[in-house]
Amino acid sequence: QVQLVESGGGLVQPGGSLNLTCTASGGSLADIWSMAWFRQVPGNERALVAAVTNGGSIDYADAVKGRFRISRDNTKNKVFLQMNSLKAEDTAVYYCSIASAYWGQGTQVTVSS
Predict the structure, then answer these.
(1) Which of 20, 48, 53, 101 has a beta carbon 3.0–4.6 Å from 81's, enabling a disulfide?
(2) Could you tell me which residues come within 8 angstroms of residue 13 by beta carbon, excluding any fewer than 6 positions away?
(3) What contacts 64, CB < 8 A, 6 or more positions away?
């Protein structure tokens, strides 16, 4: 069974950048068509942030288009989320996911001055 571990979260000022990493173990990402990042704030459901397929198809939530970039490196079993021009409303716990069925433990991102 594939396990996912997120890292790279933290506290950043508005306008700053963070790079999140999702590391998979117990399986090969080369066998997994779609990988995604979600985020969740207390009281809300998890919401899709970005997704990337092995075919190169990428989708972003409207709120992050032009600011976030998702990528994957199957040789390293990693998925990345580069976040630029961060806003206070990006504050959330960020989760890596496979088909909304497998989840990591999440990493907190806080955007605050």
Answers:
(1) 20
(2) 111, 112, 113
(3) 49, 50, 83, 90
Structure tokens at 97: 């996911």
Q: Are 4 and 76 within 8 A, CB to CB?
A: no
Amino acid, res. 108: Q
Specify the 3-state DSSP secondary structure of 89.
helix
Q: Measured in whole angstroms, how far is the alpha carbon of residue 34 from the centre of its chain?
A: 12
Amino acid at 44: N
What secondary structure, in 3-state letters, does 33-74 show?
CEEEEEEECCCCCCEEEEEEECCCCEEECHHHCCCEEEEEEC
- Closest residue by Cα to residue 49 from 7, 13, 80: 80
pLDDT tens sequence across 6-46: 999 999 999 999 999 999 999 898 898 999 999 999 999 99
